[in-house]
């Protein structure tokens, strides 16, 4: 088929219209940690575009608030449902899977979004000598903090992904969708940067592990012909429980632009917002030709940090 004939055949079907390019209507989606922050942004965006979204978390209150607030909006064809579970444990993951399986025969996308930022020692807050750094970083931290960070931010993604694998595969075999469900893991620009960002070695190392895990998942699933795509998102500074940015601090004034550019190191002079993030997620989950990709969405922070 010639390039012109291909163009004409595609144009006539209308598949290049934006609503069809990113269509998730009728999808079943999972968003862990979906009661707050970027997880809630993701769940809301999916529901507003017709998906049935299951969110989970350790605490019931944020989940109930998210569900009730979305119901009060009365817009979109989808819905948000909650299953309280702690996905940082195998028992919690099993509870979540069983809760979804009791209502659904397949899922179209699993978004591993839950995460934690543990305390860390400030590498700049001590005498910058071998002795000073040794004392600060050795005595100021403990193994338990590192282990908990890795357990929640990385290991739980591994177990959650494999626990949901049959339901992901069933999207094609049972749901008759063109492809099985796909996975998006949430990492961070902190998993890519070469700096510890003032000493958060535990968080940055854990996010780097999450990126590596995502690459391995994508590779192993492709090798076995499962068709289950895996991609990883690496956000920069977005308002969340981990990054406290007030709405009034992001009104686009010259002073605020300079603040974010100089103090936060963001060349675009602002933090990310819900639209930025939703556009990223929809591109990854609907593009059937992308797997094993790292999607950095940081307003140029990594570029700036390399200067």
TrEMBL record:
Query: Which branch of life, at top level?
Result: Eukaryota
Q: Which UniProt keywords are listed? A: NADP, Oxidoreductase
Single GO molecular function: oxidoreductase activity
Q: Which Pfam families match?
A: adh_short
The family classification in the record reads: Belongs to the short-chain dehydrogenases/reductases (SDR) family.
Q: What is the protein name given in its UniProt record?
A: NAD(P)-binding protein
Give the originating organism: Kwoniella shandongensis
